[in-house]
Design a protein that fits this description.
heterodimer, A: 115 residues, alpha/beta, 4-stranded mixed sheet, 8 strands, globular, B: 315 residues, 6-stranded mixed sheet, 5-stranded mixed sheet, 15 strands
Chain lengths: 115, 315
């Protein structure tokens, strides 16, 4: 079990690193960014992407979560463990979202215009 | 696992309360005071039963989470079936079943269908529901209302009367705000005020909703932000019973004439408030699970009036 946990932690760290790479590139061109859901939180909690970027949320928790934007522009069905949801951001803006099952889980996507 | 917790309450609302963990709670009506009692004792015969005699009113079932299949309980249909068998074996049938939400785990059509098929085996056929956030988690928020929306014209809140008791079903699992608690919203609060206006203060009132109608633990969203406004409309009534689910464990308190009570789940336990990263399924050893599905026994002691809660486990 400890080994599995270590593997999971490593995987989440890798995902976070990948997301950070995507993040650093977003100023210039659309990318795919990944947000992992782990221990009842979105990681990273806030990211900045360029218009046209597809954001993917993946749930690693045994508990289901949802992605609901406050402005209702995107809504997922429940994500069970290892389920994903993707949404392509075509309009600049600041999008706040919440898990409708656990509203203490909040996140923000900042979408910048392309250079 | 027996820890008596004494607390004060007013004399006229004194009640004997037993909440049955995994298998619902049956409520009886004695002289206008609602008396929850556990199903195991409800099946008892002879002097024990007559001592508790009253009009069987309803059974509360909560958090059945049909569709959940993880290790905390791989057979939630099985534990619901056991619950139904216990309810069906009651010697005196209650008139109603209240389901306080999270009928399903993922708001899937197939989960609702399975739940309906299982619940149809209840011999008590009058079922009243309120959704949990797991029932309205589908992107279109339609599966629950397609099946259970009629009672409320798809608003989610409604009321009815049964044996002189006024029942109010509220919905507090829609339109969460970030970092927020459950909420009722202004439309529902206005409806509630009108619904209660003009009713005699001696009418026993039962209010049921999924999330606790008081703040049990804010960091996990275990509360309802605008519940205080609803309480303001209820305080004038002599007997108010607020029933919730959501937290998969019994928490109870009494304020004046209002008794707050959360039911356990028929599916799996959850951690106590703040214990762990979040309010997810609590995995316990399989031989421990029946012990998590225990009974809470609240007894009345006089001189001075006080209730004593004793948690007892099934195994």
């Amino acid at each position: 079990v400890i080994a599995m946990k270590a593997k999971m932690t490593l995987f989440v760290l890798m995902l976070a690193a990948m997301t950070l790479c995507a993040h650093s590139e977003t100023a210039s061109r659309p990318e795919t960014a990944t947000i992992s859901i782990h221990d009842f939180s979105f990681s990273p909690t806030s990211i900045t992407v360029v218009v046209g970027t597809t954001v993917r949320w993946k749930n690693f928790d045994g508990e289901p979560h949802t992605i609901r934007s406050i402005d209702t522009s995107f809504r997922s069905d429940p994500l069970d463990q290892n389920d994903s949801f993707t949404f392509r951001f075509d309009k600049p803006g600041t999008y706040r979202y919440v898990c409708s099952i656990h509203p203490q889980m909040v996140g923000t996507i900042v979408v910048k215009a392309a250079n | 696992m027996s820890a008596p917790v004494p607390f004060d309450r007013s004399r006229r609302n004194a009640l004997k309360c037993l909440a049955f963990g995994g298998a619902g709670t049956v409520f009886t009506l004695c002289a206008g005071v609602l008396t929850p009692m556990d199903l195991a004792l409800a099946q008892a015969t002879g002097a024990d039963r007559s001592a508790r005699a009253g009009l069987p009113l309803f059974v509360q079932i909560s958090d059945t989470h049909i569709g959940f299949n993880k290790e905390a309980n791989p057979d939630v249909a099985g534990t619901l079936t056991q619950t139904i068998a216990l309810v069906n074996a009651l010697p005196q049938k209650p008139g109603l079943i209240l389901h306080t939400g999270d009928i399903t785990h993922l708001s899937k059509a197939a989960e609702f269908d399975t739940a309906a098929q299982l619940l149809s085996q209840l011999k008590v056929t009058e079922l009243h529901t309120t959704p949990g956030e797991h029932d309205v988690a589908d992107a279109s928020v339609s599966e629950y209302f397609n099946r259970y929306g009629k009672a409320s014209q798809n608003r989610g809140y409604y009321s009815f009367d049964h044996h002189g008791v006024h029942f109010v079903s509220l919905i507090n699992v829609l339109n969460f705000k970030p970092n927020g608690l459950g909420n009722l919203g202004q439309d529902q609060l206005e409806w509630l005020e009108k619904d209660l206006r003009g009713r005699s203060a001696s009418t026993p009132v039962v209010v049921f909703a999924h999330m606790p109608l008081w703040t049990v633990y804010a960091p996990w969203g275990w509360g309802t932000a605008d519940a205080d406004q609803a309480m303001g409309y209820l305080t004038r009534f002599g007997s108010v019973t607020l029933l919730n689910g959501h937290i998969h464990q019994i928490v109870q308190k009494v304020e004046g004439n209002i008794t707050f009570h959360t039911a356990r789940s028929t599916a799996y336990p959850q951690p106590s408030p703040g214990n762990g990263p979040g309010p997810g399924p609590l995995k316990v050893a399989s031989d421990e699970l029946p012990r998590m599905l225990g009974v809470s026994n609240v007894t009345l002691k006089r001189h001075p009036n006080a209730l004593t809660i004793t948690d007892a486990t099934l195994a």
